[in-house]
Predict the structure.
Amino acid sequence: MLFGRNRNVQAETVILPEHLRDEQDVPTATERPEGPYDISEIESREFSKGYMDLGTIKVPMRKNVSYRLEQEQAKNKVFAVSAVHENSTLQIQAFAAPRSGGLWEEIRQEMYDQNKGAKGAKLAFQEGEFGQELIIRIPAKLPDGRKGERIARFLGIDGPRWMLRAMIMGKAALNKKDATVLDDILKNTVIDRGEQPLPARQLLELTPPENVQAAMQEAAAQRRKQAKARQQESRTN
C-alpha cells in the first residue's frame, strides 16, 4: 500500500496496555470549534488527566477507543499515534511547517501525484470539515480471498509553524457517522511544536511517557526472545 509513506521504513505497532490508560478522565473541549489546537491556545499546560502526553502531540483519551504507537524498528522512534474505534483507525502525525502555512496543500498534491500511477488506484479530492481532503483507494485482497480495496482518507491542518496530517481508515474513511468519535479526538488534539528552529516538513518525533516506554521496551524484549526461539527451532528442524 502506497499512501505516500516511505516504503523503505519498517514500521512497528505498539499497542498501549489498558492499565496505562484512564478512560474516566475525559478532557473538556475548548471554545475553538475547529481544532486541533496549538499549545498556546490552551489555558493550562496540565495534561495529566484525560490526555496521553506524547510531547509534541497530546491526544485526548476516549472511552471504547484503543491507542497504539507507530514506531520505526531500526531507530526505535515513534513517528505516529493511532486511535482505533470499532472498525476504524485514525493515525496522527505532526510536522514542522513554515510560518506562511500552506504545507498541507503541497503535501496533498504530492501524495496525489505519487499514488495516481499505482495500478488500479482511484484518487479524489473532496471538501471536508477540516478543509480539502484526499481519498485514496488501492486494490487489495480481502481476508476471505475476494478482491477488494483499501481506502484511506487523508486530511491536514496547518497550525502555527506546524502541520498535522491525519489518515483515517476503515468505515470512518467514507461514512461520516462512523467518524464521529475519531473526529472528536482529532478536534481536541493539542500540538506542542516547541520553539526550536526546524526545517519545514521535518517530522515531529513523539516522546511516550516513561511508563509507556517501559512497556514498549518490555514488548520489544519479548519479541526478540520469541524471534530467537523461532530461529533455534528452525535450526533443530
User: Anything to note?
Assistant: The two ends are 35 Å apart (CA to CA).
